[in-house]
Amino acid sequence: MANNTEVTVQIFSGGFNGESVSFDIVEQKLLSVLDRLPVTKVIMGWLPDKKLYEKTSKLLKKRDIGFYLWFPVFSETGALKDLEPLVDLNGNRLERIEENKSEDFFFCCPDNKENIKKILEIFTENFSSLEKNCFNGVFLDKIRYPSFANSRGSRGVYSCFCPECLASYKKFNFNAEKFKLALSGERHFDIAEYSGNGKYLFKDAVLSDFFKIKLEIIYESLSFICDFFRERKYGIGFDVFAPFLAPFTGQDVIRLSSLCDFIKPMMYRVTNAPAGLPFETDALTRHTGNKIINKNMYNLDFCVKEIKKLNDVSSCPVYAGIEINRVDDITPVTPFYIEETISAYLKEGIHRFALSWNLLDMPDDNIEKAAQTLC
Ligand SMILES: [Zn+2]
Questions:
Q1: What are the residue ranges spanned by the domains of the chain?
Q2: Which fold has domain 6-374?
Q3: Ion ligand 1, residues whose Cβ is below 5 A away
Q4: Which of 46, 182, 197, 313 has the most CB atoms lying inside 10 A of its own CB?
């Protein structure tokens, strides 16, 4: 094993309204990887289950492994509190659709201060009574606006136009009317070039101004949220989109890396679900007709280059997020995929990996191949 190889594993223990998994299952699965992989951090969440977290924490402490609570921020939290939704261009609220799924992908307005207050209350009410030092930190997910793959398609991307956001736009001298007009043009999404790390050159300045403001809003809101966790002595990790997709959801990966201790871009090349590169890229091209962003962006070479470029400028360690769970049709991950992917990153000197997003669905042949490739 290259002795600087470092692995973070992620466990989905259930959504806010889901059913929790038993500690025995978590323990069994963790033990099957901890002896075989160089694991330094475990991320688990987000269903509130005090005992599960406390027992897992004890197991990890014995091995000196960091434990992070996987906490969704601007979506999923609407299951527990009434949050103000995003508002589309025509002033329609993108309300939560009541569904009892493990993830609802309902995004609230990230600029709304009352929303942020309630989201932090969700953390306090559900997780602050856990044993002291149960978690080393929080791993913040859904720190973004919806993408084109959201069921509301471009309505969620070309948001938010709630009163608070309109006031922010004024502060940035952004002309919302001009923006609406630009969107009615056929070629409004023309991009001249992509230079890496989420940097696009838009032909229409009003489009790039709009996305820049969203980057600013997410950054500012997250600064506030991170202060809350820092004051309570929590470490912070961020789950972000692949750099080339991130700016359309309000994520400036370089700037965000200055707020957290580690950052994990989701480079899921075979995932047909949100954050999966084929799923997101196809939705983006379908909604925008743009050709600069295309399926070459989820080939392995491109993904490795994306992580290398981010590594060069990131303020914190970057963990390449690779899917390792196998769910037929959604994530058909094979040992071959794991070997090919990890080897390509290692060859380019990238040695930090986040094995995502659910260790509990990682079959043993995938674990074995990850161990062989990493060690
Ligand atoms: Zn808003």
A1: 6-374
A2: TIM Barrel (3.20.20)
A3: 109, 111, 160, 162, 165
A4: 46
Q: What average pLDDT does this structure show over 136-159?
A: 94
Beta carbons within 10 angstroms of residue 21's beta carbon = 18
pLDDT in tens, 296-315: 999 999 999 999 999 999 99
- CA of 84 from ligand 1 middle (Å) equals 8
Expressed in angstroms and rounded, the spacing between residue 372 Cα and the centre of ligand 1 is 48
Q: What is the DSSP string of 284-343?
A: HHHHH--SSS-GGGGSHHHHHHHHHHHHHH-SS-B-EEEE---BTTTB---HHHHHHHHH
pTM of structure: 0.97
Q: Give the pLDDT confidence of 349-358 residue by residue, as tens digits.
A: 999 999 999 9
How far is it, in rounded angstroms, from Cα 21 to Cα 262? 27
Comparing CA positions, the residue from 371, 321, 338, 363 lying closest to residue 139 is 321
For residue 157, the CA-to-ligand 1 centroid distance in Å is 12
Dihedral in degrees, nearest 10, Cα atoms 129, 143, 76, 295: -140
Q: Are strands 200-202 and 191-194 parallel, antiparallel or unpaired?
A: antiparallel
What distance in angstroms lies between residue 161's CA and the mean position of ligand 1's atoms? 5
Determine the distance separating the centroid of ligand 1 and the alpha carbon of 150, expressed in angstroms: 17
CA of 32 to the centre of ligand 1 (A): 45
Q: How far is the CA of 112 from the centre of ligand 1 (A)?
A: 6
Alpha-carbon dihedral sign for residues 304, 298, 102, 81: positive
- Exposure string over 107-131, b if 16+ CB within 10 A, otherwise e: bbbbbbeebbebbbebbeebbeebe
Compute the distance from residue 98 Cα to the ligand 1 centre, in Å: 21
CA gap 187, 183 in Å, rounded: 8
Could you give the CA distance from residue 149 to residue 169 in angstroms, rounded to a whole number? 25
* Gap between the Cα atoms of 311 and 296, Å rounded: 21
Sign for the CA dihedral angle at 285, 288, 291, 292 comes to negative
Assess contact for 239 and 143: CB atoms under 8 A.
yes
